[in-house]
Design brief:
With about 220 residues, the chain is α+β, with helices and mostly antiparallel strands. About 55% of the residues lie in helices and about 15% in strands. It is built from eight helices and six strands, in the order βαββαβαββααααα. The chain starts with a strand and ends with a helix.
Length: about 220
């Protein structure tokens, strides 16, 4: 299981932060496919938003989608000690979620505004203690930076291609040439970032599985 905690950036006023938190929770609750992946259980905790996901692919997809706004610090907490729906109501999980909330704001000062850690019995463990987390964190920071720098035109073309459209059909619908679509995808590292995101999700799943076996 994974926990994603989102903290509004300090550039937002208190009123803007409250509004942004409310809008994000409403979006995730009312439109479970709004960020291209199923999400569930996200709730507001004062000025933060937190929720749990079962799939690393969902977690990576959510973080990269949120990264484009540049309005949020994103803290990904791996929860290898909590697997399956039965864990959702456990006291141990609640303890780990509270601990994640307490440190999530540190992501605002991190590269790409992303931090990755692991929770263990209420303790938050970072890359200094577990080096494997460092590779996961830096990869997610790099992908988030690419997402932010991609142009709106490149993002639009990429989303359409990702939905199954060919470059030719995408070009026709956008009213541009196929060469223009190809150039937008290349400039935004669309295919490269998608392959890297898939690889990263697999690495996260492997890490969680290894840690879970150690606890068994």
């Amino acid at each position: 299981m994974l926990c994603v905690t989102l903290t509004p950036t300090k550039s937002l006023s208190k009123g803007q932060a409250v509004q942004a938190v409310g809008q994000l929770v409403a979006s995730l609750s009312s439109h479970p496919h709004a960020v291209d992946t199923p999400v569930a259980g996200f709730k507001a905790h004062h000025h933060q938003v937190q929720g749990c996901l079962a799939s690393p692919h969902e977690a990576v997809g959510l973080i990269l989608s949120v990264a484009r706004s540049a309005f949020w610090g994103m803290h990904l907490t791996l929860l290898p000690g909590h697997q399956g729906s039965d864990a959702m109501g456990s006291d141990g999980l609640q303890c780990d979620l509270v601990a994640a909330l307490a440190v999530a704001g540190d992501a605002l000062r991190a590269p790409g505004q992303v931090l990755v850690a692991m929770a263990d019995s209420g303790a938050i463990i970072g890359p200094k203690e577990v080096p494997q987390l460092g590779a996961i964190e830096s990869s997610l920071q790099l992908l988030s930076a690419i997402e932010r720098r991609r142009s709106d035109e490149g993002q639009e073309a990429g989303v359409m291609v990702n939905a199954g459209n060919s470059q030719s059909l995408t070009a026709s619908e956008l009213g541009v040439s196929q060469q223009a679509v190809s150039a937008r995808l290349q400039a935004g590292y669309w295919y490269e970032s998608r392959r890297a995101a898939y690889w990263l999700a697999h690495e996260i799943q492997t890490f969680i599985g290894t840690q879970a076996k150690r606890r068994a």
